[in-house]
Specification:
With 483 residues, the protein is an alpha/beta fold. The chain is globular. It has a 7-stranded mixed beta sheet, sandwiched between helices. The protein has a 6-stranded mixed beta sheet with strand order 10-9-8-11-12-24, with helices on both faces. Strands 1-5-4 form a 3-stranded mixed beta sheet, with no helix packed on it. It contains 15 helices and 25 strands. It starts with 5 loop residues before the first strand and ends in a 7-residue tail after the last strand. The mean pLDDT is 96. The longest helix has 23 residues. Helix content is 39%, strand content 23%. The chain folds into 2 domains: 266 residues, Aldehyde Dehydrogenase, Chain A, domain 1 (3-Layer(aba) Sandwich); 178 residues, Aldehyde Dehydrogenase, Chain A, domain 2. Its EC number is 1.2.1.97. It catalyses: (2S)-3-sulfolactaldehyde + NAD(+) + H2O = (2S)-3-sulfolactate + NADH + 2 H(+). GO terms for molecular function: lactaldehyde dehydrogenase (NAD+) activity.
């Protein structure tokens, strides 16, 4: 039976709009067309940004209480249609239905946190009399919205990563123009539906769909775009930075996350967390575990336990609640996995588990003895492949962890607080998870990395801070005794 193909529309300036040109959205599991989506032109994107800016300037002030209500109502709408959102995520992307349900729940939380943080957007008084000659001055600073935000989002969390940009932008009082990943635009459009139902002001949210090659330049170079919030690859991030000009940039550009397992660790917990961290979302996760460094005394035991638990994972139909690992987003990505593993094996690596491809599926794969010159060691894999390597001690593990040009998050398993703090202070990353894998995040925490892993921090409060500007107010009083 052939699946009915959805004819989707873009949400632009408070209206649902079609375009003459469209592109197809596929289910990566079977390459079936599930939707046809409008293909925006660069001229149209320019028009959308112009109108968003006009909407921003026409509202002298969008009251905080109204922002809070819009965000709360949007979250309530998503909660009401929770399963519809989850089905869409699982259908157009790589996540299993269980993983998709988890993403929907996190999205609701992200938007509700945004509503809470809108209430907390405050300034402070300034003691001007700290400087001699300013005894008759008093004042404060406050934060105000900066203008139109461009949000460019990836495929791997097609709902929550959009919410991480839209929620803070609206909480701060900014219009936002979203360009979702071409392979997963439907979830972003569903998010727009929730905000439309919640009464977002006309022009304060637009979701434009189309090719990044065709509309990306118009989006990032437009003078009315005041900040670009981008999640994606390093190469694309570098190009955006080159073309953006004098704009604020927030970028999360991926990682090659290490996990350290010391001999005093709870190996069962380390294996459980690291297998989940390596293979959830088919490994297409910026926080995903890629390299595991294990003290030699427990290396064999840990590797055997890890391989055994990996063998238990069920690969298959995303919509089945029994499935642990679905397909990669496109078959070309599975082919890349195959190519990188073959390269590593040709250089001396050994496949302990997995290493098999079937269309867009690639089995969860465990490698040992991987040369550090292999792509799977120093590049971001972004797939279901993990490397396990023995080390002498925590110092060597930290050195190995730091030798790639990424630094998003890391994990360390140990019962020794001194070793934990050594890792905390010497790992070159944006976050260290102690007795957990690198794949841990709550949506409120500051989130981001160093080196090629990005610029700035996401997390709702951090994003709102970046999406506002500070204005200082100083009163010079004519009668010094009045203060």
């Amino acid at each position: 039976m052939q699946t009915k193909v959805l004819s989707a529309k873009m949400y632009v300036l408070g209206e649902w709009i079609g375009q003459e040109e469209t592109f197809d959205v596929f289910d990566p599991q079977n390459n079936e067309i599930i939707a046809r989506v409008p293909k925006a032109s660069k001229e149209y994107v320019t028009h959308v940004i112009d109108q968003a800016a006009e909407a921003f300037y026409s509202i002298s002030s969008w009251p905080t209480h109204e922002r809070i209500q819009v965000l709360k109502k949007a979250a309530d709408y998503i909660e009401e249609y929770h399963e519809r959102y989850a089905y869409t995520i699982a259908r157009e992307g790589s996540k299993t239905i269980t993983e998709a349900r988890g993403e929907v729940s996190r999205t609701i939380q992200t938007i509700r946190i945004s509503a809470e943080e809108a209430r907390r957007l405050k300034g402070e008084t300034i003691n001007f009399d700290q400087m001699e000659g300013s005894e008759n001055r008093t004042g404060y600073y406050f934060r105000f919205p900066i203008g139109v935000i461009a949000a460019i989002t990836p495929f791997n969390d097609p709902l929550n990563l959009v919410a991480h940009k839209v929620g803070p932008a609206l909480a701060a009082g900014n219009p936002v123009v979203v360009k979702p990943a071409t392979v997963t635009p439907l979830s972003a459009l569903l998010l727009a539906e929730a905000f439309d139902q919640a009464g977002v002001p006309r022009g304060f949210l637009s979701v434009v769909t189309g090719s990044g090659r065709e509309i990306g330049d118009a989006l990032v170079s437009h003078p009315e775009i005041k900040m670009i919030s981008f999640t994606g690859g390093v190469g694309a991030g570098d190009k955006i930075a080159e073309k953006a000009g004098r704009k604020k940039l927030g970028m999360e550009l991926g990682s090659n996350s290490p996990v350290i397992v010391l001999q005093d660790a709870d190996l069962h917990e380390a294996v459980k967390a690291s297998v989940s961290g390596a293979f959830s979302a088919a490994g297409q996760n910026c926080l995903g575990v890629q390299r595991i460094f294990v003290e030699k005394n427990v290396y064999d035991e840990f590797t055997n336990m890890f391989a055994e638990r990996t063998r238990e994972l069920q690969v298959g139909d995303k919509q089945s609640e029994w499935t642990d690992v679905g397909p990669l987003i496109e078959e070309k990505e599975a082919l890349r996995m195959e190519e990188w593993v073959e390269e590593a094996v040709s250089m001396g690596a050994k496949v302990v588990q997995g290493g098999k491809r079937n269309g867009a599926f690639y089995d969860p794969t465990v490698l040992i003895d991987v040369p550090h010159e292999a792509k799977v060691y120093y590049e971001e894999i972004f797939g279901p492949i993990v490397l396990i390597e023995p080390v002498e001690d925590v110092q060597e593990a930290v050195i190995r962890s730091n030798e790639v040009d990424y630094g998003l998050q890391a994990g360390i398993f140990t019962a020794n607080i001194d070793h934990a703090f050594y890792a905390v202070h010497h790992l070159h990353v944006g976050g260290v998870m102690v007795n957990d894998s690198s794949d841990y995040r709550i949506d409120e925490m500051p989130f981001g990395g160093v080196k090629q892993s990005g610029l700035g921090r996401e997390g709702v409060a951090s994003s709102i801070h970046d999406m506002t500007e500070t204005r200082v107010v100083a009163f010079k009083l004519t009668q010094p005794w009045s203060i």
